[in-house]
Specification:
The chain is an alpha+beta fold. 39% of the residues lie in helices and 22% in strands.
Length: 105
């Protein structure tokens, strides 16, 4: 809550989340699916998928992301290729840090 109170909800693109409630909904969605998507929210024409890297205590110790131009990071390519690639890499890194990947990321 303290951190959310300090956020300046500045719009960078037409897709930037500028509302606290919308942001909280997006965080819940990210927790449920285990990855985050940036759909041109900071830079026009750039999309990104990000996953957590956890250690043996389940703590997030790093993040892994794949970014690229929106014309190459289509919805289909993200869902069929890039999200699975990022999730798999995040699981492998987490496993090397002692995380039980059977628990999900």
């Amino acid at each position: 809550e303290r951190i959310l109170g300090e956020i300046q909800w500045k719009r960078y693109t037409r897709n930037t989340i500028t509302d606290r409630e919308e942001f909280l909904k997006e965080l819940e969605k990210i927790r449920e699916q285990g990855y985050a998507l940036d759909d041109e929210e900071f830079d026009e024409g750039i999309r990104c998928v990000g996953v957590p890297v956890r250690d043996y205590t389940r703590r997030v110790v790093a993040g892994l992301s794949i970014s690229g131009p929106a014309y190459r990071f289509t919805d289909d390519r993200l869902q069929e290729e890039l999200v699975p690639l990022a999730v798999d890499a995040g699981k492998k890194l987490s496993a090397r840090l002692g995380f039980d990947v059977g628990q999900g990321l």
